[in-house]
Design brief:
Blueprint (H helix, E strand, L loop, with lengths): L1 H15 L3 H4 L5 E5 L8 H17 L4 H11 L3 H8 L13 H4 L7 H22 L1 H21 L12 H14 L4 E8 L2 E8 H18 L16 H17 L12
Antiparallel strand pairs: 1-2, 2-3
Helix pairs in contact: 3-7, 7-8, 7-9, 8-9, 8-11, 9-10, 9-11, 10-11
Length: 263
């Protein structure tokens, strides 16, 4: 593991020394973790199924219909701000509910695929530790707080914010605490070179969090892009979800080894 850690550290230092355009071509992709479970993670499967089903519904909408759908069920920061001030935004559902409904919406196949891959890799272990009910509460709670973190930095934006990444970031925040030594089989494409390495979770997820926080700070002066701030990625939702997951997980029994019932 030590040799893999050193190799990964060297690659990441090389990454940080590249230009932003070059960094965009370098992405650490988790393929699976070396962290077996003893249960069937039904909640994780259902969450993945729901996200896919709703996306299939989205792609059958016309562009005007999709815009209406997103503005109804995604988080629109400007409207959420108005609702917090007691102003009627003339929506058929309470605006606070979009903090939850937005978690099941995605803006494209890559957006969906990336989120579901991370949920597949990291979600089952956290579901096993917390149990079904607490895992659902944990997932939805992290997603809602993540959306609020993004809203805080773009409260006047009229651009819909959506995606499961905030909730999944919460799972990652819990995972790094509970399973820091678990090895993540990682695909590392660099330009035309593709390689796989095994990375300790503490390094993989820690590096991911630092990236999100760094880009979140860098995006503060950026203009709104479709779906989020700064290039279409809700960096503050990612960072906020990660931190909240690391806080909420222990409160819900992340380190409880005496659970006899999976519920």
């Amino acid at each position: 593991m030590e040799n893999g850690f050193i190799k990964t550290a060297a690659l990441c230092l090389e990454y940080l020394e590249t230009s932003p355009s070059q960094q965009a071509k370098i992405t650490m992709v988790p393929l699976r973790d070396q962290n077996p479970i003893k249960i069937t993670p039904y909640v994780t499967y259902v969450l993945i199924g729901l996200n896919i089903a709703i996306f299939l519904y989205e792609i059958n909408l016309s562009p005007p219909q999709l815009d209406v759908f997103f503005r109804l069920f995604a988080v629109v920061p400007k409207e959420l701000t108005a609702s917090f001030r007691g102003i009627n935004v003339n929506q058929p559902i309470p605006e606070w509910m979009t903090l939850f409904t937005a978690q099941f919406l995605h803006g494209g196949i890559l957006h969906l695929g990336g989120n579901m891959l991370y949920l597949w890799v990291f979600g089952n272990n956290i579901e096993e530790v917390l149990g079904r009910v607490r895992f659902i509460i944990f997932y939805l709670g992290c997603g809602a707080i993540a959306s609020l973190a993004q809203w805080f930095f773009s409260a006047g934006s009229a651009v819909p914010s959506l995606g499961a990444s905030g909730a999944i970031a919460g799972i990652m925040g819990a995972y790094i605490l509970r399973f820091p030594r678990a090895e993540i089989l990682t695909l590392l494409p660099i330009l035309i070179i593709w390689t796989t390495i095994r990375v300790p979770a503490v390094f993989f997820l820690g590096f991911w969090f630092v990236q999100q926080a760094f880009y979140g700070v860098a995006s503060l002066g950026a203009s709104a892009s479709i779906g989020m701030e700064g290039g279409g990625v809700a960096y503050w939702a990612h960072a906020g979800g990660f931190v909240f997951g690391a806080i909420l997980g222990p409160l819900l029994g992340l380190f409880d080894d005496n659970q006899d019932t999976y519920y």
